[in-house]
Specification:
The chain is α/β, with parallel strands linked by helices. The protein has helices spanning 3-16, 33-38, 58-65, 81-96, 115-123, 138-141, 146-163, 180-183, 197-207, 230-255, 260-289, 295-321, 328-348, and strands at 20-26, 46-51, 71-75, 100-103, 129-133, 176-179, 212-216.
Length: 349
């Protein structure tokens, strides 16, 4: 047997011996949800359908039409958004003893046959959280609406800044999987419940130092109706990205750790602002008096600006290289084993 075949067999055994749960938020997906569920493979242990106060009655439709014994329907009395629905599914899966939890949309845009691609890196200890990336295959990108291409490019850059995961793209992709041990440590009550959910998840995961990787996938665009209006969420996204950026820098570089980068950022910003302020003041005086600004004055303004920019860029370089690399759930597992071992030794004495 070849090494590749042996690895594949080990992965299959690991998957078959693991409790893999799928969470499907449902809101106006009555036409697609049954097909999505029927496409989920037998390797999945349990399926949680979250009826998020769906006006089409998706939950009742599933209970009446679906015979799959793995399916459990959970109802929300009022609409909580995709984030609220996923958090409800996470809680239910964790309480039942799931090991890995996959989040899949009910509108048919996500191929259920790719679930194994999302859970394998987690079971192999390579990641704590996996998410889809529709931009991996350049040929497939041509089929994507140009507005989505531009929007995702802008959102991806903003997410890199606020989350700290500089190696990720397609931040609003909702096809995800997470290890249950990591999900337990998420502050469910604080995570954004609506359209900012996927991006806020990345910020929360970075504060836990969880490893996140992209999984290449193709998007499927059919007759589904999007409830997302860019004009309504643009200001909200900008505010929340800025808030998360400030929080992340404070948590990672001042509260939990101190490094050279902790000095470079504030010093660089101060120098840049001092140089820009002095340069602006000098330019305004010269414009009012009509006198030529001396070269020395120009240099006194330019030097702090250049030094400040260098220090900020040095901070960014450190931040980019500071992406989490060692899976959090492995560290948590090692800690549990260590505690159990210590308790066993104490019992012996």
């Amino acid at each position: 047997m070849s090494i590749t075949a042996s690895n594949q067999e080990e992965n299959q055994n690991a998957i078959s011996n693991s409790r893999i749960a799928v969470v499907i938020p449902c809101y106006k997906v009555e036409r697609h949800i049954r097909e999505v569920i029927s496409s989920i493979g037998l390797e999945i242990w349990r399926i949680y359908v979250i009826d998020d106060a769906c006006p089409e009655g998706s939950g009742k439709h599933i209970e009446m039409q679906c015979l799959d014994q793995r399916v459990q329907v959970v109802y929300h009395e009022c609409n909580q958004g995709v984030g609220g629905a996923v958090m409800t599914g996470y809680r239910a899966a964790i309480a039942d003893g799931a090991e890995v939890i996959v989040k899949l949309d009910g509108d048919g845009q996500m191929d259920p046959s790719l679930i194994l691609n999302f859970i394998e890196p987690i079971l192999a200890g390579e990641a704590d959280y996996t998410k889809g990336n529709r931009f991996f295959d350049l040929e497939e990108i041509r089929a994507m609406p140009k507005v989505r291409l531009f929007g995702n490019a802008v959102l991806s850059f903003m997410t890199k800044l606020s989350s700290g995961y500089w190696d990720l793209f397609d931040p609003t992709n909702g096809y995800t999987a997470i290890h249950a041990d990591v999900a337990r440590h998420l502050p469910f009550a604080k995570i954004s419940k609506r359209y900012f959910f996927e991006t806020d998840m990345l910020f929360r995961l970075n504060t836990l130092r969880a490893v996140v990787i992209d999984i290449p996938m193709d998007a499927q665009y059919g007759d589904e109706v999007s409830n997302l209006k860019i004009s309504k969420i643009l200001g909200e996204f900008l505010f929340k990205h800025t808030r998360n950026l400030i929080k992340r820098i404070f948590y990672n570089y001042y509260l939990r750790d101190l490094s050279l980068a902790s000095i470079e950022l504030p010093l660089g910003m101060v120098l840049f602002l001092v140089g820009a302020s002095y340069g602006g003041y000098s330019w305004l005086q010269s414009a009012q008096s009509g006198a030529v600004t001396p070269a020395g004055t120009v240099m006194m303004a330019a030097m702090p600006i250049l030094m400040g920019m260098q220090l900020v860029l040095a901070f960014l370089g450190y931040d980019i290289s500071n992406v989490p690399r060692y899976a959090l759930h492995l560290r948590l597992s090692s800690r549990k084993k260590s505690i159990k071992s210590t308790m066993t030794k104490e019992d012996l004495f």
